[in-house]
Design a protein that fits this description.
Blueprint lengths: L2 H21 L7 H38 L2 H14 L4 H13 L3 H14 L4 H13 L3 H13 L5 H13 L3 H14 L4 H28 L19
Helix pairs in contact: 2-3, 2-4, 3-4, 4-5, 4-6, 5-6, 6-7, 7-8, 8-9, 8-10, 9-10
Length: 237
């Protein structure tokens, strides 16, 4: 056989193998493989349900310890709850409350933020974050949180009292009056709000009086006429 014929046969052989590899369909998925994936999804779902149930148990334990005043035990229970279920916003919130009781406001701030990451419109976390920020003298952050709580329909008198204090710091006595009045509508016996309202009202009166004086100074005064000489009658001789 000639070398040219041998080469042609070899080329045909290799092309046949190559085309066979390209056109060979992939192996069909066996029913056992599909069943395994279905079972895996069911197992994962069951694992999540078990985790949520365990988280709920730890949350309830934390609430019992918190209400008894055992804040260290409450902290441990709430911490276990969020490990079991990272989306348990209630446990994040009460972790923040617990850290405030343990005098650790910075950790409380982080806990409230985590609660809001899971549920952005969770009113108790917005209120608590605003109040703890105010106590930490983070006034801008506090105002943002408390205004958001106001939008969410807060019924907590301390929220509006604190907004009144912030507006006083902003030299906005009219807004402060509105906030104090809302606090007193929610709690008429709120002494701090009563005192804040009196101060804001006095400040507004002072500002109004000062503005009136400035207007009077700016108004042109009428020109004064020179005094006329009195004409005395000429005595008769």
């Amino acid at each position: 056989m000639k070398s040219a014929e041998i080469k042609a046969i070899l080329i045909f052989f290799f092309l046949s193998m190559l085309l066979g590899c390209v056109t060979t369909p992939p192996p069909e998925k066996q029913p056992e493989d599909r069943l395994e994936r279905k079972d895996l999804r069911a197992i994962n779902k069951l694992a999540r349900e078990i985790a949520r149930e365990r988280s709920e148990d730890f949350f309830l334990t934390g609430m019992r310890e918190y209400n008894k005043g055992d804040f260290q035990d409450a902290y441990e229970a709430f911490s276990r709850a969020v490990v079991e279920d990272p989306k348990d916003y209630r446990s994040y919130f009460f972790l923040g409350q617990t850290h405030e009781q343990l005098r650790d406001p910075e950790k409380a701030v982080n806990d409230y933020k985590k609660a809001l990451e899971v549920r952005p419109h969770y009113l108790p976390a917005q209120e608590a974050l605003g109040l703890v920020n105010y106590k930490q003298k983070k006034f801008k952050e506090a105002e943002i949180n408390l205004r958001e709580a106001e939008k969410l329909g807060s019924k907590t008198a301390e929220v509006y009292y604190t907004l009144g204090e912030i507006e006083q710091r902003n030299d906005a006595c009219e807004k402060a009056i509105t906030a104090y009045e809302q606090a007193l509508r929610l709690n008429p016996d709120y002494v701090a709000a009563q005192n804040g309202l009196k101060v804001a009202q006095f400040t507004c009166r002072q500002k109004q009086h000062q503005q009136e004086q400035e207007k009077q100074i700016q108004q042109p005064q009428p020109a004064q006429q020179p005094p006329q000489k009195s004409l005395k009658p000429t005595p008769r001789r």
